[in-house]
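Practice problem: Glucose-6-phosphate 1-dehydrogenase
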Amino acid sequence: MYQDMVTLYSSPSTNCSGAFSSYSNSSIGFYNYHYNFPISSRKFGSHKIYLQINAVRMQDGAVVAQPSKTQDETPLKKLKDGILSKEQKHTFDFDCNKDKSTVSITVVGASGDLAKKKIFPALFALYYEGCLPEHFTIFGYARSKMTDDELRNMVSKTLTCRIDKRENCGEKMEQFLERCFYHSGQYDSQEHFAELDKKLKEHEAGRFSNRLFYLSIPPNIFINAVRCASLSASSAHGWTRVIVEKPFGRDSESSAALTGALKQYLKEDQIFRIDHYLGKELVENLSVLRFSNLIFEPLWSRQYIRNVQFIFSEDFGTEGRGGYFDHYGIIRDIMQNHLLQILALFAMETPVSLDAEDIRNEKVKVLRSMRPLQLDDVIVGQYKSHTKGGVNYPGYTDDKTVPKDSLTPTFAAAALFIDNARWDGVPFLMKAGKALHTRSAEIRVQFRHVPGNLYNKNFGSDLDQATNELVIRVQPDEAIYLKINNKVPGLGMRLDRSNLNLLYSARYAKEIPDAYERLLLDAIEGERRLFIRSDELDAAWSLFTPVLKELEHKKIVPESYPYGSRGPIGAHYLAARYKVRWGDLA
Ligand SMILES: NC(=O)C1=CN([C@@H]2O[C@H](COP(=O)(O)OP(=O)(O)OC[C@H]3O[C@@H](n4cnc5c(N)ncnc54)[C@H](OP(=O)(O)O)[C@@H]3O)[C@@H](O)[C@H]2O)C=CC1
Ligand SMILES: O=C1O[C@H](COP(=O)(O)O)[C@@H](O)[C@H](O)[C@H]1O
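Answer key — structure tokens:
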């Protein structure tokens, strides 16, 4: 058994069936395959794509092909029956495994907040959009005692239909819920996972089964759950993948220990480390904006860019999550992952292709070119209670699950630098905070001045008035806008600032999918581009671990800021040190 390069031909099809012929002499190989899968159509359309197909001949003689964009981890020995004989042209019907394969998705920690708020609604949205395979089963797994109906009832409260497509919504929900089941068990019990395995098998009914486990549980029980799921409930003849939620450790050492422990039971390509910011529409669009428009890429360097800002703010505190948050703080919760991931995508060199490994290779390179964050380049804050309009908003330490003397930052601002030829000397500023005046996430790119600008005198002394700024508003009200200087219409010569504005709600009638939808679908399809590879994670932690340790060791007291304010004044001094003004305050 070996792999070889073969070409498959198929006429483009809009449905899931078609025929192709193969000159393959193995049952597994890379095929240049022109086909339109409904499940993949959001990405591939009817374009020519490279797919790996694992073809397996089932006992009844039918051939089941498992399409996957990258190499699948299905053990080769399991494909024994699927060997296609040498030098012969094979033609067989390919029907997207309609009757022969199934995906079982187990949400581990199904009783929890994330499962209810995000995972089940995203799975329903995928079902509603026709993106889930024909045969699938969803299992909730947690310690809480619940019947299938109780799970369905709990889940039904958070399902919503697309605003732009409400047809058959109730009916679709019913159909979806009928395919949701529940199994109660401990996270460290192989026996309980074996019971789950038995139930999964009943639902899989002899089909070629693939299994996805979503670990929506606190990090201290990740390893036990992975051990039990992998030893007792892995798929016998399909793939088994595990989505792991952050936090992936709290520093370099604990992250490496977590990765090491996960790898005792899983191979790297079975681990899908999720960072839901990578699934956000505007973050996905970052590469498109940059690499498919001639006007941006040539400007994307120290030559034209003065600074870049990554800003995250929430207008609510840590209410209800104080216990978790106090152990991590805002730098680990938002900066080391969400903002740094966006930064890496923003600053990386052009990847060789759009393949997951090519993109992740570039991200690792840029992360490794960065200087570890220095204590002088960080300021931290913590919100205190504030009364506004007769309402009292509690301070961080008013939360009963937070120690009264906690020094955990709920706000941080930082200046980072990439020591490579493209970005030498350009400050990459980050700012993230809870309980601020607004909820938003954006990337701001501030350009340099126009050299010898003929209109200098029209701008007065305000430098920021004169320079262009590109804003990528990730949320809310997704938009990309470019601030330009413009002549005010009239007989005089007065200049003002205007926005060239691509506001998504005005341009696209379609509702924007939630990040979890994209990421779940990618995990089902084996697309790893938006998931974090272990070397990326190591590089990310190396940048933040020294300063996190120093903050804790030196017991740095965070600057307090009132709930609902714009955050501590220190953030302005930090920016000013690098001659930067935060763009969100303009
Ligand atoms: N909630 C959110 O918005 C986000 C969460 N995350 C991450 O996702 C994961 C899940 O988050 P979330 O749903 O909020 O977590 P929860 O605290 O709600 O926990 C999920 C489930 O795990 C079980 N559980 C909780 N604590 C323990 C414990 N000490 N020992 C054993 N089981 C426990 C409970 O189920 P039962 O008792 O029934 O077994 C609970 O319903 C976490 O890793 C979190 O960091 C990431 C981003 C955002
Ligand atoms: O990962 C996390 O993200 C949320 C913010 O996510 P968003 O998609 O609502 O912007 C944040 O509230 C939470 O603290 C953090 O753990």
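Discussion: Residues 276, 314, 333, 441 surround LXAUTJHC (ligand 2) (CB under 6 Å). Students who identified this feature from the tokens alone can consider the problem solved.
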